[in-house]
Amino acid sequence: MSETVNEVAVLHVDDDEAFAELAAAFLERMHDRFRVETETSVAAGLDRLADEEFDCVVSDYDMPSLDGLDFLEALREDAPDLPFILFTGKGSEEVASDAISAGVTDYLQKEHGTSQYTVLANRIENAVEQYRSQRALEASEQRLSLFIEQSPLGVLEYDSDFRIVGLNERAEDILGYSEAELRGHTWEAIVTEGSYDNVDTVTDQLATDTGGYHSVDENVRKDGEHIHCEWHNRVVTDDGGEVVAVFSLFQDVTERIEREARLRETTARLTALFEESPDMVNVHNVDGDILDPNPQLCEATGYSAAELTEMKVWDLDRTLGAERATDIWNDMEQGDRRRIEGAYTRKDGSTFPVEVHVRRLDLAGEDRFVAISRDISKRVDHEDELERTKVLLSTLVGALPVGVLAENSDRTVLAVNDRLLELFDIQESPAELVDADCLKLAREAGELTTDPEGFVERVDELISGSESVYSESVELARGRTLARSYEPIELPEGTGHLWMYRDTTEQRERERQLQRQNERLSEFASVVSHDLRNPLNVATGNVQLAREEHDSDRLATAAEALDRIGDLIDDLLTLAREGDDVGDCETVALSSLVDDCWRTVETADADLRNDLTTTVVADRSRLQQLIENLVRNSVEHGGPGVTVTVGDLPNGFYVADDGDGISADHRDTVFEAGYTTSRSGTGFGLAIVKQVAEAHGWEVRVTESAEGGTRFEITGVDFADGRA
């Protein structure tokens, strides 16, 4: 750490000396507290770190001999927590992934222009503040540990998931456990079942709030002895509201609780049960006479308490019957519980389904039954709805163009369509396979794949994980390829399983051809990214510095030209790197994506009208490029105060504006690379739109909007509900 707390000492390592010095100049100008030292190699940087203390390291990635990740690996051996920011011109998902895996603090790609130094300065400041806060926290935790060990009360410390991470010596004495025996367990290890609800309520409050909560619970020692403890619980959060720790201070109050228990009257407990319970409760005898109904039972049935005490249990639940009720009661011992379902009859003659929990008790020497009932009308309606859904599912499955198999929770076939049987060369009809063993069916289908055992294992793995999967590849032995999707489905009897298969053989061949093309384009993109960006950044920075020293129209013109070069490089890299391929497709809600794009594009005084309601299947990042470029085109060419409208089409969506529009004789050329009517445009924006659309297999065309402006229509889109 630097000698002065307010000073932030930064070591910037970049093999481009001019860029490193330029970055240092901007950083020190932006923040007086920054002191930036530079080196041009990893070896020199490591030597500098050995001799001096720094608060943060900023490093390029692509350098001779040793790169930025080699630098990070060497640094982490001696300084595992020192902030390290990878500031590189060679940006890719692979480099970002490797950097994150290696433990980089932050990752920032070099851009043209000077605004990148503001971003870098903020990243440095945030990383250093977090690093210093962590060290202060460690010192605070050491002081807290001394307090806990010397406390006369038992102290338990939990993590944010309420798992025990520590207890002091007094807590060990009270509970009979050592810290090692309880570490990693939840409070359930030391709380009796009777106190679960009470403790659960306290933990729910602690999980959603700050402050302290008091409770008295029944606990169990290691030797099995039940004791009562008084708990004072507090959640500790940082300034950002994140949970730092949860502490519980407690003492054994068993003797006090036993004295209080002897003073409580049985009638008080019954009053609380009857008057405060949200459920319907009644007490009846072995003859079925209702002796004591609670207010909730009276309210639900429409009878008064006096009317109910004139009735038998089977008068209220006419599905029960005297003989069946007597058999149930005679089979119960004192303390036994039974669960039954029935239907209560209201005073007006209507009925409603109930779930009844009956317990046999000895109340003041009398043999009694306590029946706690709950209205389950909603649950029954839900089960009926699920059954109707099951019938609808069977109808839909048969009509889908992809292979579909729906399994029950016990892994038997609910529904299957002809297309799936065709894909796996299964001879039986869909009707013959209903209720068939899905495990056996998976083994038969697996024999057609290149890895039969792996096919079955993957099916079992997906079912065990119960997580959705979309379009994972399955290789068949005859050179064909299928795309498999899996979705868990909720059924009345539990979780079912929905499988969808489609033939992607031709698609995979196209992907292999595109992969070879993209590899060649990637080489070009790497050269543009690394070998052009650094000189461009140096030129842009020096022009900026020169403009601050000299007021010259020529420097302003040069700055505009450099910005245009940067925009051209960005668009060329997009065309070269992304190509005509798409990444993993996912379901994307178009309305929220358009809102995100509107916030990232400079829209000036333009207005947005978002009428989208559909969800599509697409590569989210590339679809975002398409929409951003269309919005930017409308804003740049539509004129001041333009209104941009986005909406649904039967097989896609559109982006329109009320601007000046595009003449009919130019509509065929607007998608050509380099075509533009704006001095500030690059001419590649609409070319990228066309590229992204075609990469998804969509079509894009331009026409006139209803207001006389421009309207772009994207069609042939795959919707999340299976429409295309």
From TrEMBL:
Q: What Pfam families does this protein map onto?
A: HATPase_c, HisKA, PAS_4, PAS_9, Response_reg
Cross-referenced InterPro entries, in alphabetical order? CheY-like_superfamily, HATPase_C_sf, HATPase_dom, His_kinase_dom, HisK_dim/P_dom, HisK_dim/P_sf, PAC, PAS
Q: Which SUPFAM superfamilies match?
A: ATPase domain of HSP90 chaperone/DNA topoisomerase II/histidine kinase, CheY-like, Homodimeric domain of signal transducing histidine kinase, PYP-like sensor domain (PAS domain)
Output the superkingdom of the source species: Archaea
Q: What class of enzyme is it?
A: transferase
Task: List 4-aspartylphosphate occurrences by residue.
Answer: 60
Q: Which UniProt keywords apply?
A: Kinase, Phosphoprotein, Transferase, Two-component regulatory system
Q: Where is the PAC domain?
A: 213-265, 338-388
Report domain PAS positions.
140-186, 266-308
Task: State if Phosphoprotein is listed as a keyword.
Answer: yes
Domain Histidine kinase: residue ranges: 527-715
Keyword check for Nucleotidyltransferase, yes or no: no
Mind listing the GO molecular function terms for this protein?
A: phosphorelay sensor kinase activity
* Boundaries of every Response regulatory domain copy: 9-125
PROSITE patterns from the UniProt entry: HIS_KIN, PAC, PAS, RESPONSE_REGULATORY
Enzyme Commission code: 2.7.13.3
- Can you state which reaction this protein catalyses? ATP + protein L-histidine = ADP + protein N-phospho-L-histidine
Quote the NCBIfam families the UniProt record gives: sensory_box
Q: What is this protein called?
A: histidine kinase
- Give the organism the record lists: Haloferax denitrificans ATCC 35960
